[in-house]
Specification:
Blueprint (H helix, E strand, L loop, with lengths): L1 H6 L12 H18 L8
Length: about 45
C-alpha cells in the first residue's frame, strides 16, 4: 500500500498508532514538525 500511495503522489505516510502512548508520541512529532521545522516562503501580494 505504501508503494501505491507514492505512485499516486503521496510524499509521506503515517502508521496509525495502536495505543494511547503511541498516539501521544505521534501528536508530539507532528507538533514539532509543523510548529518547529516547517518554514513558509515569504509571500508578498
Amino acid at each position: 500500500m505504501v508503494q501505491k500511495a507514492y505512485q499516486l503522489g503521496a510524499n509521506s505516510y503515517l502508521i496509525k498508532p495502536l495505543g494511547y502512548d503511541h498516539w501521544l508520541q505521534l501528536l508530539e512529532a507532528l507538533r514539532y514538525y509543523w510548529w518547529e521545522i516547517v518554514s513558509f516562503p515569504n509571500v508578498t501580494y
